[in-house]
């Protein structure tokens, strides 16, 4: 009798080890599928927009651009740690998958990089007056200093990219607060601007394509120093852009202009710029928005508040008339939107890149040349799909184990009756 019982115990142990092994392999496969593979499966279905180059323009290689917005990295105050872990992993995987596959020349992030940028402390907000206080408050000061630094480090880790890819950001209201906060504490914009080399207005010339990046929080039109500085910079950029247009429209004064020796910084055949900012330009509501991820009908009709959801009507007209952009790109609403303004200027509002803000986040791929541009939207996996795969996988796992346990018990019963 001793020999058969020994065999039975060994058999049970083998069955148990088999369960554990199969369970571990299944769990690892499910995890790898949901956390890595699914990103490739979904994102690789997207492609660069079709873009044909005319013969005369073949000398300049078109610019491949990736655009995303509203990443809203959580800080230390709001949100649950699991929310932060889950959504930041989702954004990091989606971004890294897209960047490694599409290899864009330039990436633009259209603001609200952080969710708590305006609440996040640094050492300036906790001034230490003397050596005694310095020693006493050393730990606290380091903590606060680390808070902003850690935020920045996490951002750079998540959105790491090769050195050949240029990366630009514009500021959003969650990075420095809305105007009432940002104008009250100028340090909020200064530290953001210093970290990301992001002044209130920035003119970029990349392979002959012009981009104007604007701090739309500073478009309040009042006398606050951030707003005044932004307007001065905006006028400087507008003068550069309109230099040739001004000269050609003032032919009668050609002699005067020659005497002034006014030269233009930009080549005469420069294209109209592409305006990039966080707030969309003024639109009364979202009714005219088109696109698969446009706001739902019940939200479309609610009126947009100037300077909160959109730039004020007056400042929007000013931007359009000063810059005369060929395309406007914006974020902030977390929904998609494509529309034409009254003067025919197209605007694309890009939805949030984070599962925190929508179930189906996306980014935009754009091919741009001085003559034209083309846009395509790329979706990343839906959060509901990933959750469904986990649930179905869990059910399959439980059913599979139940089946195997049942088979094993039946085998044991048969074996026991044979031994008796
Ligand atoms: Zn925003």
UniProtKB/TrEMBL annotation:
Give the signal peptide, or none: none
Q: What is its membrane topology? A: Multi-pass membrane protein
Q: What keywords are assigned to this protein?
A: Hydrolase, Manganese, Membrane, Metal-binding, Transmembrane, Transmembrane helix
Compartment annotation? Membrane
Q: Which GO terms describe its cellular component?
A: membrane
List, for all copies, the residue spans of the domain called Calcineurin-like phosphoesterase: 64-335
Instruction: Decide whether keyword Transmembrane is in the record.
Output: yes
Predominant location: membrane
Q: Which PANTHER family does the entry link to?
A: METALLO PHOSPHOESTERASE RELATED, METALLOPHOSPHOESTERASE 1
The family this protein is said to belong to: Belongs to the metallophosphoesterase superfamily. MPPE1 family.
Q: What is this protein called?
A: Calcineurin-like phosphoesterase domain-containing protein
